[in-house]
Design goal:
The chain is an alpha/beta fold. It contains 14 helices and 15 strands. Helix content is about 45%, strand content about 20%. Helix 4 crosses helix 14, helix 5 packs parallel to helix 10 and helix 10 packs parallel to helix 11. About 35% of the residues are buried.
Length: about 425
């Protein structure tokens, strides 16, 4: 009979069998493989659920910031919208630079109201306008191209038009100017990527571009972090989730709400400045001046409107200079400029700014239409989320501007054929 102890001794240890113990770097390699598999798995799952796709803007030395090309974007802060950006960084299907025969192209420049990431592309007024024009003018194929970027001021729209808009050989440039567009022409310190804008100054008939705010922001911790994480921001949905969570945590910690524009009062003097309120104007006064809060400061409606109008008159020469530059570029590229008025955030109006815009358009001989009154007939809750258009808002705005755009298209086509538009 074999002794149990003897039997134990007959079994060889790993060393006796010639099997080496795993080295530390082999263990590290195994851990790395596991991490990579987990990351790729999460990226795949997030892609199926369109999670972590909110980041889509990158620093741009000319524009301040611009969309990433070939990027799928899902936004859920107002409404729920998705967009696939093409290789030219437009929320559009791929379009050739060379314009197809018998095609009339309209380039629409603007801010987030034009970009419209709060709704699906087929609910955006650019898409709906393209459909309406093709239906009403079947002898010509229309392409309406969306060049809107959230946070752009009027000067950035001009630069983007010069940089990439004209390469598509547009026949018309449609400029929807949003109420309160004057306010973002005021230089302010950058607190993030979308406020690191170039700013503009009118010097006689010249338009000067100033990148001081942008260049200063690049040297801040926020700017350096944005540059260093550029690849992750563009390609990683996990990073998108982490980044969004970090932003929300910072906002909660600092108690920062949605930034808007308005008036602030310091030492009993009204100043035209950024505030933590919406840019929607307060309700008109009835029997006497009403008071309302901007941030933690109580102001009267008289203070508000006085400060707002003073700011508009002060900064309008810059807006006028930018629109003049856009008109000059359109003339050089043999395309027609048309201006329409959009409401401000949440449907707010700005009568003085609309008046100034109309005067600039008249001086330049640019067709102009104010659509704010027509939109004001419908309840704001139907047409807007907090700030931007709902699908119903886009639909109604399309109905408002289509006859005006269509008439200008007809005039343009007939003028080119040497016919009398009448």
């Amino acid at each position: 009979m074999m002794d149990l102890k003897t039997a134990d001794k007959t079994e060889n240890s790993p060393e006796q069998k010639g099997i080496a113990k795993p080295t530390w770097y082999f263990c590290a390699f195994q851990a790395l493989v596991v991490v990579v598999c987990v990351v790729l798995g999460l990226e795949f799952l997030f892609s199926l659920g369109h999670i972590g796709e909110a980041e889509y803007l990158k620093p741009d030395p000319v524009l301040g910031f611009s969309p990433m090309p070939n990027k799928h974007v899902t936004k859920a802060d107002e409404g729920l919208g998705q967009a696939q950006y093409n290789k030219y960084a437009l929320p559009e299907p791929e379009r050739s630079l060379n314009k197809p025969a018998n095609t009339y192209r309209i380039v629409v420049i603007g801010d987030s109201f034009v970009e419209a990431l709060q709704v699906e592309r087929k609910e955006n007024f650019c898409y709906l306008l393209e459909e309406a024009l093709n239906k009403n003018y079947p002898t010509t194929h229309f392409e309406v191209m969306n060049f809107g970027v959230a946070g752009y001021n009027l000067g950035q729209m001009y630069l983007r038009l010069k940089q990439s808009g004209f390469q598509f050989q547009p026949d018309m440039v449609l400029l929807p100017v949003r109420c309160d567009t004057t306010f973002v022409l005021q230089p302010t310190p950058a607190i993030g990527l979308t406020t690191a804008r170039p700013y503009f100054f009118a010097a006689g008939d010249k338009l000067l571009t100033d990148y001081t705010v942008y260049n200063t922001w690049l040297k801040t911790s926020s700017g350096k972090r944005t540059q260093l994480t550029g690849w992750l921001r563009e390609h990683s949905r996990i990073w998108g989730v982490v980044s969004l969570a970090a932003q929300q945590l910072i906002i909660w910690y600092q108690g920062i709400g949605t930034n808007g524009w308005g008036a602030t009062v310091t030492n009993k003097k009204t100043a035209f400045a950024e505030s933590s309120s919406s840019c929607t104007a307060p309700p008109p006064k009835a029997t006497g001046p009403k008071t309302f809060m901007i941030g933690n400061t109580e102001v009267s409606s008289d203070d508000y409107y006085s400060a707002r109008d003073k700011g508009i008159r002060y900064f309008w020469p810059i807006a006028d200079g930018i629109i003049t530059a856009i008109k000059k570029e359109c003339d050089q590229n043999k395309c027609k400029l048309v201006i329409v008025q959009l409401p401000g955030a949440g449907g707010s109006s700005n009568p003085l700014e609309t008046e100034m815009l109309g005067k600039t358009a008249a001086r330049l001989g640019v067709p102009f239409e104010d659509n704010t009154a027509g939109l004001a007939k419908e309840p704001a809750s139907k047409l807007y989320y907090q700030i931007h258009f709902t699908p119903a808002g886009h639909k109604l705005y399309t109905e408002q501007i289509t006859p005006f755009v269509l008439q200008n298209v007809r005039d343009d086509l007939e003028k080119r054929k040497g016919l009398d538009p009448t």
